[in-house]
Amino acid sequence: MGVGSNARNSAKQLVKTSDKKYDFFTEYRSMVGLASARDGAHSGMPSAAAQIVDYLSEFISFLAVFSVDGYFYLVAVRNGIIIRDILIENEEEARKAFTELSSIPDWGVLIAPSSWGIPKSQEKSIYDLVGNTNVAKLRQIGLTKSLLPAILGAILFILFGMYVLTSPVKTTSNRGAKLNTELANEYRRQIELKKQEALEKRLAQASAEQSFRYPYDNLPGVYERANLCYKAIAFVMQPIAGWNQTLAKCDGEYVSATFRRDFGTLNDFYEIGGELMPGAIVQQTSEDEVIVRVKLPALETHSSLDERDSATVARDVASIFQQINTRADINNVTDTIMNNGVAETINVTEVAVSSKLMPAEFMYAFNDFQGVYMSSVSWRANTRLWNYEVLIYTK
Length: 395
Known about the structure:
Blueprint: H1 7-16, E1 24-28, E2 31-35, H2 48-55, E3 62-68, E4 71-78, E5 81-88, H3 91-102, E6 109-111, E7 121-122, E8 139-140, H4 144-166, H5 174-210, E9 219-220, H6 222-236, E10 243-250, E11 254-261, H7 266-276, E12 281-286, E13 289-295, E14 301-302, H8 310-323, E15 328-339, E16 342-355, H9 359-363, E17 372-380, E18 385-394
Parallel strand pairs: 3-6, 6-7
Antiparallel strand pairs: 1-2, 1-8, 3-4, 4-5, 9-14, 10-11, 10-17, 11-13, 12-13, 15-16, 16-18, 17-18
């Protein structure tokens, strides 16, 4: 899903494009998944794929297949995104799907039954990986089914109350009549209370459906973001004997650094890197290259949008970089997002610049603009240059 997308709305749009009936959805990171009641899914059921991704969080990419009660469950993750999540009945078909995906290079780890004899793979039991977390539980796509039990209960309650109130009441004393009157009043009060609770619940759910935030409603402060990325890059670019730093990059949620082997060993890297960068995720792309990744802490966000049109913003940005004799690649684009089932477009000016200026110094060039977000900054050791990608959201 795109930034600011509503998971339930995205699920509804996906259902409309499918010829299969889906009843539930789940949200995990920036992804949305669908499930069908006909397949045995129910509200509150957790996603196995999400739990496996959490368990194998040290790997950015992995390909795994598990034997489960005569079936074969295949999960493929690339760069933190679940690209395949399927239960296969036939072992031959499962092995074929695994083989096709394994042809893609640079998997962090391969997991498969030992009987398959897959080189460099390891066998794991799915029951060791799932069941310990509550991430990504299924929720109903539509509100109708979730409200149905409550509505039916209210109707039955009302009918029962009406029966009690309209049935002949045999009393032998004034005290009995008084008790029946009090009972009737209590039934009326409870009926009204139930009706009010049901109404409030429907209004709350309708409000949740309609709430929507655009990407420019969640922008961090320009300099807070620049300083965070600068410090994060400094954190992952630690000197490790025998390994050369080649590239560091700070994007939306993570900062990463790429190291190339010189005379060091992998054991040296893991030992020294583990002490210098506690909590970092290490991905071994080859025997001579390692990528270290660390999740960025969250920053406070605010709403910001430039009131000028894209053409004016692009011209003003170009003029600023012309004044300092720096080349800037500037493009005006429109992004399409779904808002309560309706496609909307937002205008974005994209700016890409290579500079020797550090992040906070560079972002000073955008001081006169609103809706500014430094989506990515990277530093290359061979050029000693910072490469910036900046978005400006415009009217």
